[in-house]
Design brief:
- By secondary structure, the protein is α/β, with parallel strands linked by helices.
- The protein has 3 domains: about 210 residues, FAD/NAD(P)-binding domain (3-Layer(bba) Sandwich); about 110 residues, 3-Layer(bba) Sandwich (FAD/NAD(P)-binding domain), CATH 3.50.50.60; about 110 residues, 2-Layer Sandwich (Enolase-like, domain 1), CATH 3.30.390.
- The chain is about 35% helix and about 25% strand.
- Strands 1, 2, 3, 4, 5, 6 and 17 form a 7-stranded mixed sheet that branches. Strands 8-15-9-10-11 form a 5-stranded parallel sheet.
- A hairpin with a 4-residue loop joins strand 12 and strand 13.
- Helix 1 runs parallel beside helix 9 and helix 3 packs antiparallel against helix 4.
- The longest helix has 25 residues.
- The radius of gyration is 24 Å and the shape is globular.
- The N and C termini lie far apart (about 70 Å).
- The model has no long low-confidence stretch (mean pLDDT about 95).
Length: about 475
């Protein structure tokens, strides 16, 4: 080992960690990044965001060919799924992107250390038998799948999101425990490919935390597609059988139990901070009751030279949130002033229709006693959406009643995940609905829905 001294060592090579490493190197710091997976990109790239989006796209294309091509004068016969080929394509996308991050590390002269990192003192990290020292340490170890008591995940018939991305065949019947983002995305994949999908949710609504109105319309859309829901239901057991899995459940508020059988059960009840075997207790880094690392406004722990970002600290467990924190921490470590506006962190569900939100929901504004105006515009009145044959949904803008400042934007419909970027920038810059309304949007584009929703805040939409 020729060199083991660094300005900063980052433990974890996911979106937060590798972006932090790159930005720190750009700022002239000597950087090492420790990653135990053997592939950079973290959960997101290897067994999360990217592979799931690859399967969502493939299954969406198949769904279109089955149900929507004929309407556009494209006749298809003998359509079938080559599931193995679909999985191969997904793996190829992942491999290409992980390799790309390694190239970025080489370009920025970042030392990539493969193995599990353990903090053995306030300025030392051990990986295998080797020890490395650093002036600063950044914890970016991400999160892991949360488990349900009494339900053992074997990644074959009772699977987490990781196992769902590696199934050998399409199940005839799949039960998803948890009607959140991950469960609904992966449930959509297998529903499109022919599985009978039922989502079981402990709460009385899907996608908790989202705008209530959007949630109701989203559920109706998924039900039309064939996904069944059992809300307000608690899963109490899962027994493997010769044919698959037998689930036991009861009403969340108590009641008679019932059973349901499935070929595959997907457990998606959230994620938890991953800090196992990291040595936090040895160096005295404080954590919360939920296992999150405690940090101050500069992402600094109670141990002055140790920082933490991403899923291991409070806030939404989102790759782009971790990236923003990674950049901010790198800048803080270089003596600059890093900043993250947590009110301008968008959230997206990549089902069809897509769902995207940024800022406050109506429920949050009501709870805070803030008066607001609502502007809403349907994709059914948008020329490009109709021409594309994809016009389900709407955009909704919430603006302060007194100042007209945009407080929240919620979209369900085509390309919602892309449209939310403009909306996030509006909130970042403190824009008013008038600012969006008076910004020229190209015609015909899907983005005109956002402009019209902004016009609708003052009841002056042009096309409705």
């Amino acid at each position: 080992m020729t060199d083991n001294k660094f300005d900063v060592i980052i433990i974890g090579g996911g979106p937060g960690g590798y972006v932090c490493a790159i930005r720190a190197a750009q700022l002239g710091l000597k950087v090492a990044c420790v990653e135990k997976r053997g592939a950079l990109g973290g959960t997101c790239l290897n067994v999360g965001c990217i592979p799931s989006k690859a399967l969502l796209e493939s299954s969406h294309q198949y769904e279109n060919a089955q149900h929507n091509f004929a309407e556009q004068g494209i006749e298809v016969s003998g359509l079938k799924v080559n599931f193995g080929k679909m999985m191969e394509r997904k793996n190829k996308v992942v491999k290409q992107l992980t390799g790309g991050i390694e190239m970025l590390f080489k370009k920025n002269k970042i030392t990539y250390i493969k193995g599990a990192g353990e903090i053995i003192s306030t300025n030392k990290v051990k990986v295998g038998n080797d020890e490395y020292s650093a002036k600063k340490i950044v914890i970016a170890t991400g999160s892991d799948v949360a488990h349900l008591p009494g339900i053992e995940i074997d990644e074959e018939v009772i699977v987490s999101s990781t196992g769902a991305l590696e199934l050998k065949e399409i199940p005839k019947k799949m039960v998803v425990i948890g009607a959140g983002v991950i469960g609904l995305e992966l449930g959509s994949v297998y529903r499109r490919l022919g599985a009978e999908v039922t989502a079981i949710e402990f709460l009385d609504r899907i996608t908790p935390g989202m705008d209530n109105g959007l949630t109701k319309d989203f559920q109706k859309s998924l039900e039309k597609q064939g996904i069944k829901f059992k809300l307000g239901t608690k899963v109490t057991g899962a027994e493997k059988t010769k044919s698959g899995v037998k689930l036991t459940m009861e009403a969340a508020k108590g009641g008679n139990s019932e059973t349901m059988e499935a070929d595959v059960v997907l457990v998606c009840v959230g994620r938890k901070a991953y800090t196992e075997n990291l040595g936090l207790d040895k160096v005295g880094v404080k954590t919360t009751e939920r296992g999150l690392v405690e940090t101050n406004a500069n992402w600094q722990t109670n141990v002055p030279n140790i920082y933490a970002i991403g899923d291991v600290i409070k806030g939404p467990m989102l790759a782009h949130k971790a990236e923003e924190e990674g950049v901010a921490v790198a800048e803080v470590l270089a003596g600059q002033h890093g900043h993250v506006n947590y009110n301008a962190i968008p959230g997206v569900i990549y089902t069809h229709p897509e769902v995207a939100s940024v800022g406050k929901t109506e429920e949050e504004l009501k709870e805070a006693g803030i008066e607001y105006n609502v502007g809403k515009f349907s994709f059914m009145a948008n020329g490009r959406a109709l021409a594309n044959g994809d016009a389900e949904g709407y955009a909704k803008i919430l603006a302060d009643k007194k100042t007209d400042e945009v407080l929240g934007i919620h979209i369900i419909g085509p390309h919602a995940g892309d449209l939310i970027a403009e909306c996030t920038m509006a909130i970042e810059f403190g824009a008013s609905s008038e600012d969006i309304a008076r910004t020229c949007h190209a015609h015909p584009t899907i983005s005109e829905v956002v402009k019209e929703a902004a016009l609708a805040v003052e009841k002056r939409a042009l096309h409705s």
